[in-house]
Specification:
single chain, about 200 residues, mainly alpha, Serine Threonine Protein Phosphatase 5, Tetratricopeptide repeat, 13 helices, disordered C terminus
């Protein structure tokens, strides 16, 4: 059964995540889950700001609060036992919640990168957050870290991509491939259009 959260309850949950008040967040999640005969994961999923569509996870990640991030989605594997702690049961929210996008297409990983919170970035990635989701400006989380000069986050992403690239990186990877490209300016190409001449 989906929880019936009031606007005030959603605001309180969002505030507790934003402020890093993990014990109070856990307590409120449990109370609301008990009241509505549902799970804390369902409460978290339902708790989204009306206009911005931000979740508790967005707020905790944006402000670098590791414990509310864990409470939101990452405390334990998806299967939890009966009577599990709220933080554990909240992990059932799963990857769809981890990658939930706000009204501008940003995920919690976008906001962690924007703030330069490397510990949160690592935590979200370790639990399956996608680094390739683009926001409404086609920016992936790495872009937000780079645009805001959080080079420690950029370096971490690049180190991870080298590990993923594996054998290709040992053979020179993409850098070697680009050396072999013949990029010339063909002056005889008449297909280019001058935008100012388009009346």
């Amino acid at each position: 059964m989906a929880p019936g959260l009031s606007g005030e309850e959603i605001d309180d949950l969002i505030y507790l995540a934003r402020a890093g008040e993990e014990p109070d967040l856990n307590e409120m999640l449990q109370e609301l889950a008990t009241r509505d005969a549902t799970s804390p994961a369902d409460v978290l999923t339902a708790a989204r700001e009306d206009q911005s569509k931000a979740t508790c996870l967005h707020m905790a990640a944006a402000n670098g609060h590791a414990m509310p991030v864990k409470t939101s989605v990452v405390a334990v594997p998806p299967t939890t036992s009966e009577g599990a702690e709220p933080a554990q049961a909240a992990a059932q929210a799963g990857p769809a919640y981890i990658d939930a996008q706000n009204a501008f297409g940003n995920t919690a990983l976008h906001w962690a990168c924007l703030g330069g919170h490397l510990d949160i970035v690592k935590l979200l990635l370790s639990r399956g957050a996608s680094p390739t989701i683009g926001n409404d400006k086609d920016q992936i989380p790495l872009d937000l870290a780079a645009f805001n000069n959080h080079m420690h986050v950029v370096d971490y992403f690049l180190a991870q991509s080298k590990d993923i690239e594996g054998g290709n990186a040992q053979e020179g990877g993409l850098a070697k491939e680009t050396q072999d490209l013949d990029v010339t300016d063909d002056a005889s190409n008449d297909t280019a259009v001058n935008p100012e001449s388009e009346g």
